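call fold target=Isoquinoline 1-oxidoreductase alpha subunit
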Amino acid sequence: MSRLTVNDEPIDYKLDPDTPLLWALRDASNLTGTKYGCGTGQCGACTVDIDGHAARSCRVPIGSIEGTYVTTIEGLSRERNHPVQLAFIAEAVPQCGFCIPGMVMAAAALLARNSDPSEELIRAQITNLCRCGVYPRVVEAIQRAGRAMRGEEVIPAGPRPGIDPADSARLVPALVPPPAR
């Protein structure tokens, strides 16, 4: 049994200690924001925070991190208002969105240690891969989040998650045919 604290909740994983943290999070804890990308630690889609450091969860056996604190994208900010999340939205970073949770987690870990990173440091530390090619916006978003963390900028909140049923195209009155007479 591997005992960890995940998103501030103590968890006893009754899994083989060699089970990658990625699968413990996704399959046993239903925390699916952590994505499976390459399985070799190269792409960074599975990045989580382990005791304040970004880690590729596909390469971390749960038995090797007993007693640690793990934060996933779901636990970064319950209200989705962490400066990195707000800056990624404000800078229009997400495209397809697959790599974004891992990038956000890597950026949050970097900014927790250094809230004023240079472009060079960001590019050296954030090695996550993105097929959409959003790298210039990622750098600007991380620097903007750092300014917010230092109190130099306020980033407006993004839209609340989800779609209000009244905003659905299926329910817009102009698009609904009138009843047959």
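return ok
Helices lie at 21-28, 73-76, 83-90, 100-113, 119-125, 135-149. Strands lie at 2-6, 9-13, 47-50, 53-56, 69-71.
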